[in-house]
Amino acid sequence: MPIRRRRALGALSVLLLIAAGTPAPAASLDHVGTFVWSGDDDSFGGFSGLEISPDGSGFHALTDRAHLYWGSIDRDSQGVIRAMNIAGRAHLKDSKGIPLPPGYTGDSEGLAIGDDGRIWVSFEGLDRIARYDDADATAAALLPPPKVPGMWINSGLEALAIRDGTLYAVPERSGGEDQPFPILTFRDNRWNRAGEIRRDPRWLAVGADFGPDGWFYLLERDFQGILGFAARVRRMQLTDDGPRNEEILLTTRPLQYDNLEGLSVWHDGQGIRLTMIADDNFLFVQRTELVEYRLRD
Q: Which residues contact 7 (CB under 8 A, 6 or more apart)?
């Protein structure tokens, strides 16, 4: 059968399944590559937030001690990471221009960069979101988020994403393992709610991004003690009535990767690519990893 006709029949089959009320085949992820990143600076490590440029050639990476790194990415002909080249580093400041110390006020977790280039960072400990016009700027003083179930010490607004100028923040925990994650939105210095995300026991929300397909991607983590970390990626469509069409795209084995905490979703020319970064907790027994998958529908 000619390839064109076969593709047409395949697309028609999916449409007929949807029209008949039968779910279309779920998407899946193919592993592209894993890169272990190292650095000599004392502030290097603990990466919890990640933004990859739309063409995959640049990055911003946020540590959980209020340092932001940026630079370029070298890739081979298959698009696999071969080098992370640091071009700059900044120590983030508070609204008074004072560099943030590690700990309660400087526990930076989520990273989002708007189309205007402004940098948004979510913090836990002292729960808040800060806006930076550039990496060396003083933080803008913004309205603090409302308290929601699960926002305790070391479990605040961990996952952060931006779409059309609106920030979407998800706390690391909910009120209980059987309670959904609330979705908070922030725009024009006002907070609102955008529904809830179903939570499965043990899984915690640690990273988020909107893909070029408009879907909301959520990275989750499960710490299993001496067995190490497992990770999971879900995607869903955020509507006025809350999340819809949720899919689990990836569930890793314990110890398959390190402590994946940051997520960036972009298009590599062949398909949607997911890039994740691991937080090594500044421990020599852990490693800073960048793990990449390509979405296959």
A: none
Distance CA 75, CA 83 (A): 7
| H/E stretch holding 11 | helix 3-19
HSE toward the beta carbon, residue 14, CA cutoff 13 A: 10
* Helix and strand numbers, DSSP H then E, in the chain: 1, 19
Domains of the chain: 29-296 (2.115.10.20)
Residue corresponding to tokens 């999971």: 232
Give per-residue pLDDT as tens, 123-164. Answer: 999 999 999 999 999 999 899 999 887 777 777 899 999 999
**Alpha-carbon distances, residue 154 vs 123, 150, 199 (angstroms):** 9, 10, 19
114 Ramachandran zone, left/alpha/beta (phi>0; psi -120 to 50) = beta
Please answer whether residues 110 and 150 qualify as being in contact, where contact means their C-beta atoms are separated by less than 8 angstroms.
Answer: no
Query: What's the rounded Cα separation, in Å, for the pair 226 and 98?
Result: 39
**What is the three-class DSSP state of 185?**
strand
Query: What's the residue count for the chain?
Result: 297
Which amino acid makes up residue 89? R
Q: What is the pLDDT of residues 13-43, one digit of tens each?
A: 444 333 444 444 478 899 999 999 999 999 9
Exposure b/e, 92-116, CB count within 10 A at least 16 = b: bbbeeeeebebeeebbbbbbbbeee
User: Whole-prediction pTM value?
Assistant: 0.90
